Amino acid sequence: MGLFDKFRGKDAPQGVVYMFTFKVGNGRTQIPAPMKGAFVCAYAMDENPTAAAERCINKLLSMGYIVEDMEPKGAEMQLSSWDTHIAERWPDFMDHFPKQKDVVAEFGRRDAILAPFAGFE
Description:
By secondary structure, the protein is α+β, with helices and mostly antiparallel strands.
């Protein structure tokens, strides 16, 4: 059993979405030149913030990125605020995210939901 396997297969809680910002770099997957890295906001549901952060990190690692850093404090919101949060924080990318009525099922299919990456030189 892998380190994080104990979190897989559990039903996601129905109340809290945890949010984290990560700095990622080139790994198996390369960030397009001339960018040297990227920041990405990741969302996950789990029994606590640590388990949710592990889900996000595993998602980024599975995509081939190196996780270089993480904001020391994440944030949380009620699932019922999902659509409002996305509309306020990501107004130009609303089609990138699942709608509130679909978000719990989406968290069940994926370890984390990632926002668009913001590259830097």
